Amino acid sequence: MIKLPGVRRLLPSDARPARPRAAGGAGDDYGARAEPDWRTIDWQAHLGQIEVGGARVNYVDLPAAAGAAAGELPVVLVHGLDGCWQNWLETLPRMALGRRAIALDLPGFGASERPEEISIPGFAACVEELCAQLDTGPVAVVGNSMGGFVSAELAISAPDRVERLVLVSPAGLSTGVVARRPAVGLARVMGAITQSVTAATLSRSAIVRPQLRHLMLGYVFRHPTRLAPDLMYEQVQRAGSPAFMAALDAIFDWDFRDRLPEIRCPTLIIWGRDDMVISVEDADGYEDAIPGARQLVLEDTGHVPQLERPQTFNELLFDFLAERGGLEAAA
Prior knowledge:
Order of helices and strands: EEEHEHEHEHHHHHEHEHHH
Strand content: 5-15%
CATH superfamily: Alpha/Beta hydrolase fold, catalytic domain
Mean pLDDT: 88
Structural class: alpha/beta
CATH class: Alpha Beta
Strand order of the largest sheet: 1-2-4-3-5-6-7-8
Number of domains: 1
């Protein structure tokens, strides 16, 4: 059994909210727009839908830019709990400079229909089916939070599909510890409150107010006032999914810790030092459990590094995907 530090505490992380005035010291790359700018993309032209298990699944599929090297590994991006494909707005255009870039709305989230049953293996099977229907061949899979949990499960259950794996603040370790079961009730209460408040409060007009943005999103983002209001609106406009509570239960119900050593592809773990949703301590657990894995921790960063420090995140991701070789290259 994988040993995890700090599993007896009730709260998920020792990190605490940043004060609004601390945002000025977050560094030039915090909230800096990535290039190409996602606002220049005609996203509607790249949206599609497939059917998985009788439910419609929404996705975006950006082809590799003209002049990109042939044969580069496609990348599939998987969002977290109550997220949507727009969680990767700052990442998709950069990845498409060198390779095909795909992101989806997991079943029950974004514009995808809710299936009858929701589970981590079910989400992983959905990503596998998406890849099969889009004829991607082997891919690199990048997942944030619950999406990291799903991505790791996919790497275990479909090893021929996943050639490289990037876990960004993934769930799946401390969320599966039996000693933390009292935290399930707390998480459900917090989730219900977040759901109702987000749906009622975070309108387009409200999200432009820095103080309200910090109050409502400071649990997830370290310095939400540094992030562009239009980008933040894209993250919350579909929040409050009816599938939220079922997916939250699925996170706590699925335990794959003893199977993590089965992951055989090169794996990169990226975490924010000040993640309040899932403790950065879990990065050590993932690194120890997955052969050849390595971790990178971004200082003064919360739960969503790809949106908080997109330029830095994209370069780390791009460099990792460009590496040649297998586990020996990742070691």
